[in-house]
């Protein structure tokens, strides 16, 4: 059986240092003799965490370049990290191997197991804050991917992104509380979680609805597309003319 090589990119500086252990834990249940996951980050990135659209946009080209390098090295697929999906659409245009973003993969899976879903993620204040970042970013992605009608809410837990990598003991309880509110107040019957395997595991054990982790979702979908020899359509994502001059 051919071994499928998937490159999973954490699109920030020192991403492996901050998030490497979390990613390895989350990907461990997906590992089998037929797949190899390799983690990378962006050493030249100007920031270590994404907190707004400006941050995400500043990383987009570096993220695409890292994906292109993975393709040149023979990887069969690339999972481009971060729910904000910096550079994912450009990556789909630039690469011939499958490119998968975290939000798109998680939303597709959530739509298969529920009628409406909510995101649980870091934010400045807890609760549902429509129109504010990161809610605005997720809402835009849901519209682009055709899931606007299925997005029940984007619920945030007060905290910085890196706190979720640091295994703050208070986070699981706060996430569970927002997950319950997503069910009771927003009508969600599936949720997309965020954080370490401990947090995701607690959510899965204590919420009576499916809980999807976006890191696992993107890696699994990237492997599946590669194994099926299916990649993004070049009719939908044509190769940029500007790349021809550099080939």
Question: Layout of helices and strands, plus pairs?
Answer:
Blueprint: E1 4-10, H1 15-27, E2 35-41, H2 53-72, E3 77-80, H3 88-94, E4 99-101, H4 102-113, E5 117-123, E6 127-128, H5 135-145, E7 151-158, H6 161-165, H7 171-186, E8 190-192, H8 197-206, E9 211-212, H9 214-227, H10 241-244
Parallel strand pairs: 1-2, 1-3, 3-4, 5-7, 5-8, 8-9
Antiparallel strand pairs: 6-7
Helix pairs in contact: 2-3, 4-9, 7-8
Question: How would you describe what is shown here?
Answer:
The chain folds into two domains: 4-101 and 215-239, Rossmann fold; 104-213, Rossmann fold, CATH 3.40.50. Helices cover 45% and strands 17% of the residues. The protein contains ten helices and nine strands. Strands 6-7-5-8-9 form a five-stranded mixed sheet, sandwiched between helices. Helix 2 (53-72) runs parallel beside helix 3, helix 4 (102-113) crosses helix 9 (214-227) and helix 7 (171-186) crosses helix 8. The protein is α/β, with parallel strands linked by helices. The mean pLDDT is 92.
């Amino acid at each position: 059986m051919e071994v499928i090589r998937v490159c999973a990119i954490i699109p920030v500086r020192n991403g492996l240092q901050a998030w490497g252990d979390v990613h390895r834990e989350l990907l461990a249940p997906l590992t089998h003799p037929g797949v190899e996951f390799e983690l990378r980050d962006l050493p030249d990135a100007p920031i270590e965490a994404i907190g707004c659209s400006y941050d995400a946009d500043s990383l987009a080209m570096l993220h695409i370049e890292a994906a292109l390098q993975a393709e040149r090295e023979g990887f069969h697929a690339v999972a481009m990290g971060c729910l904000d999906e910096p550079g994912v659409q450009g990556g789909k245009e630039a690469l011939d191997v499958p490119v998968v973003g975290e939000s798109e993969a998680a939303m597709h899976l959530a739509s298969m197991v529920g009628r409406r879903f909510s995101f649980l993620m870091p934010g400045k204040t807890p609760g549902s804050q429509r129109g504010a970042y990161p809610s605005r970013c997720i809402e835009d992605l849901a519209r682009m991917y055709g899931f606007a009608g299925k997005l029940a809410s984007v619920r945030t837990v007060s905290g910085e992104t890196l706190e979720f990598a640091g295994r703050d003991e208070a986070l699981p309880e706060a996430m569970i509380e927002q997950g319950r509110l997503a069910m009771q107040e927003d009508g969600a019957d599936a949720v997309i979680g965020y954080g370490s395997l401990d947090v995701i595991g607690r959510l899965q054990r204590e919420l009576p609805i499916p809980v999807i982790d976006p890191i696992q979702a993107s890696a699994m979908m990237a492997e599946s597309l590669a194994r099926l020899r299916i990649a993004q359509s070049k009719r939908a994502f044509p190769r940029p003319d500007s790349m021809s001059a550099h080939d």
